[in-house]
Amino acid sequence: MVSQELLDLLVCPACKSKVKLVQEAWLACQNPDCRRKYPIRNDIPVMLIEEGDKYRDVSVENLGTS
């Protein structure tokens, strides 16, 4: 699990907006224009812009677990 201390520091690498933990498996950018979602794999956030781009058009309800 990603610690709260780490969550407080993380921002979207593309737009620098805060991210929100979703379903304990994703970090979703809070900027409505950005819409990137970053998976958490083996308790490590994959904060690569290319990875977030893959899920821009997927709603947080449809993300599932990574």
Summarize this structure briefly.
Helix content is 17%, strand content 23%. The chain has helices at residues 4-9, 49-53, and strands at residues 19-22, 26-29, 37-41, 44-45.
Sequence-ordered SSE layout with sheet pairings:
Elements: H1 4-9, E1 19-22, E2 26-29, E3 37-41, E4 44-45, H2 49-53
Antiparallel strand pairs: 1-2, 2-3, 3-4
Task: Name the features.
66 residues, N-terminal domain of TfIIb, globular, 2 helices, 4-stranded antiparallel beta sheet, alpha+beta, single chain, 17% helix
Word description of this protein:
Helix content is 17%, strand content 23%. By secondary structure, the chain is α+β, with helices and mostly antiparallel strands. The chain has a single domain (4-62), classed as N-terminal domain of TfIIb. Strands 1-2-3-4 form a four-stranded antiparallel beta sheet. The radius of gyration is 10 Å and the shape is globular. The mean pLDDT is 93.
